[in-house]
Amino acid sequence: MTSGETHPAEGPRLIAIAGPLCGEVTRLNGAELTIGRDPSNVMCLADLLLSRRHCVITITPVPRVRDVGSSNGTFVNGMQITDHPLSDGDRLQVGESVFVFVAKALRRGDMPVTLTREEPGPSTTKLRLDDARYLQCELTGVPQVTGRTEQALQALLKISAALNAAGAEEEIQRLLVDLLAEAIPAEQIAILAAGGGESPIVVQAHPSGGSAQIEMSGTVLRQVVDERVGVLTREAPATLCVPIARRNRVLGIIYLASRQPDAFDDEHLELVAGIAGVAATALENARRVAWLESETERLHSALVVEHTLVGRSQKMAKIYELVGKVARADVTVLITGETGTGKELIARAIHVNSGRAKRPFVAINCAALTETLLESELFGHERGAFTNAVALKKGKLEVANGGTVFLDEVGELAPSLQSKLLRVLQEHEFERVGGTRTIPIDVRIVSATNCVLPEEVAARRFREDLYHRLNVVAIHTPPLRERRDDIPLLANHFALRFAPKANRHLLGISDRAMRYLVQYDWPGNVRELQNAIERAVVLGSSDEIVPEDLPESLLETPPAPAGGASTLHDAVRETKVCAIRDAFRQARRSYTDAARLLGVHPNYLHRLIKNLGLKASLENES
After folding, report:
1. In sequence order, which ranges of 206-265 are alpha helices (DSSP H)?
2. How far apart are CA 23 and CA 40, in angstroms?
3. How many Cα atoms within 13 Å fall on the side-chain side of residue 27?
4. Burial level of 137, CB count in 10 A (0-12/13-18/19+)?
5. How far does Cα 565 stand from its chain's mean position?
6. CA–CA gap between residue 256 and residue 508 (Å, rounded)
7. 84 with 56: CB under 8 angstroms?
8. Closest residue by Cα to residue 20 from 48, 41, 40, 53
9. 154-191 pLDDT tens trace
10. What integer pLDDT is reported at residue 139 of this predicted model?
11. What is the pLDDT of residue 3?
């Protein structure tokens, strides 16, 4: 017998339990595994919910999955991730596909599979599953029910009842090998799963004697998988292989072997084919239940959570979903995004929907205080710790014990405070300034920054170990220009909030003013929009907000066309455009000289050109 390469069954692998590859097993070697719609990916899936390049799985130094900017997200155990370690049994969901990550060695059997190049002998029998006697609606092909047929039917009845009473897929596989051992005189019994390569993988084994290694003909394997047939070889070692197939998909393979020739006959083949049919239904149901449980968990986390955020766009819906998930898990959260995007509101939403909701929520801006003051604010100080420390003072961490501490602008922390914060995260304890007594603490840390912390880490301005401690779950808040659908909702929300304070009765915002609001890029994001609406409410005089009430910078941006005659604002804008073009021609494209001719500061001219959308056309003019 000529042997091929041995593939250890205990290597890390992905088992698909839902989606286009349901039932298939993919080995994970040292190289990275890319998943997406594009054919260049190692795992290419025809799933419109996937991005062209969706995520990457690496095994060394530790198994990890990293989302590479997908549109619909990558989920581990129902939680959306950006970069997350994988542990044995984790459920990975991308689009419609759900995989179980298996890292541990087999608990029963530990048998490697060796594919051989030997062709099946002349006494080989093949049986199409459609022709299997015990899978027919009526028992045909048997003149009379013999004692052996009666035994087979009793075995099928027992196996069917046992498998249908089982719950999880692993339990079904374990029961299946045990029941096969009772019904078939085999020395080796295993359940195999067809992998992505040529060799199958053992997912359950019942070694009752003989070699601790499975040897299988590659030709037989291809016949079983490709033709959906059971194959019986009578020459020593006798083998019996039958696919566990359902709806033209192979969910697994039943493998039996014996060192004795003619250990199996056609009756055994018929019986195992019947057992495979029963097992296929049970396995498919178990996988469907597992998928439904995963979907239930995902949808449950998408339920409306209590928050003060405003927005109905797709990006905000994802944030609400993520807030609902991380609120229940007591982990540190890092909220990133531009200034004014509502990071503190997200932190408060996480706290309100968590088990710490009845305990304090304490926020502190790490950039607003000097290093010494911030240390005292965070950790407190003992009496006499420094000048003017006339009494003991509890810090924010101590005040928030049992609750949540929100560290805004955490990227501005001084190196010495970074070390102290790391100790809080690792040891859950700290000491007051000037004190020696260790104080245990139970707080959840939610931090926020508009810095790119990986760049700060690379520049050695921020500790890498602290970054990883803070970044267990990351939430990115999108800038307002990326969710323009929310601008009308936000604008009306702020108008209704500020109108009573200004003693104004507002009917709303005019269509033309709203077009200016939607078209503007909002570099200051929601905070800038809030200020603009508050200004308009205070300075306006009509029963609705009109363009004249808005800041001049908004009016410099052309609104989306809506038909009708041009207005004063259009004329003013055109006058500005003509004046800037004339000045640029006279100044020979020099910003400084053009600003001097216009009588404005060069910085103001730069901003004006950007708002008017003139930069490209001015630079292209000769």
Report:
1. 218-227
2. 23
3. 18
4. exposed
5. 49
6. 76
7. no
8. 48
9. 888 888 888 877 777 888 888 888 888 888 888 888 88
10. 55
11. 36
- HSE value, Cβ hemisphere, 13 Å, CA-based, for 405: 26
- The region, left, alpha or beta by phi > 0 then psi within -120 to 50, assigned to residue 340 is left
How far apart are the C-alpha atoms of 216 and 241, rounded to whole Å?
Answer: 9
Long-range contacts from 326-330, C-beta under 8 angstroms, 24+ separation: 326/79, 326/350, 326/473, 326/475, 327/351, 327/352, 327/353, 327/354, 328/301, 328/353, 328/354, 328/355, 329/79, 329/473, 330/354, 330/355, 330/356, 330/444
Q: Which two tokens stand for residue 414?
A: 């001084």
- 288-301 exposure pattern, b = at least 16 Cβ within 10 A, e = fewer: eebbeebeebbeeb
Order across the sheet with 3-7: list the strands: 3-7, 113-116, 214-217
Length of the chain: 622
Report yes or no: 431 and 382 within 8 Å, Cβ to Cβ. Answer: no
DSSP 8-state code for residue 118: P
Q: Which two tokens stand for residue 325?
A: 């998930």
Q: Please give the C-alpha separations between residue 173 and each of 15, 61, 205, 251, in angstroms, as whole numbers.
A: 14, 31, 9, 11
Residue with tokens 């009756």: 267
216, β-bridge pairs = 115
Q: Determine contact, residues 535/548, Cβ cutoff 8 Å.
A: no
Q: 128: burial class by Cβ within 10 Å (0-12, 13-18, 19+)? A: exposed
| Two structure tokens written together for 66 | 């990293």
Pairing of strands 380-381, 249-258: unpaired
Q: Which residues pair with 6 in a beta bridge?
A: 114
E strand map for 411-466: 429-430, 439-440, 444-449
Per the CB < 8 A criterion, the answer to whether 558 and 523 are in contact is no
**pLDDT digits 0-9 by tens, 300-323:** 554 445 566 888 888 998 898 899
CB 259 within 8 A of CB 187: yes
Give which of 536, 65, 21, 1 is closest to 251, Cα–Cα. Answer: 21
DSSP state of 417: H
CA 51 from centre of chain: 13
Distance linking the first and last C-alpha atoms of the chain? 81
pLDDT tier at 197, thresholds 50, 70, 90 = very low
The Cα 223–Cα 226 span in angstroms is 5
Average pLDDT over residues 236-247: 86
User: Beta strands 33-36 and 43-44: pairing type?
Assistant: parallel
Distance from C-alpha of 385 to C-alpha of 432, rounded to nearest angstrom: 9
Q: Which two tokens stand for residue 15?
A: 């088992």
Report d(CA 422, CA 412) in Å as an integer: 15
**CB-count exposure of residue 603 (10 Å: 0-12, 13-18, 19+):** exposed
What's the rounded Cα separation, in Å, for the pair 541 and 504? 8
**For residues 131 and 50, what is the distance between their CA atoms, to the nearest angstrom?**
39
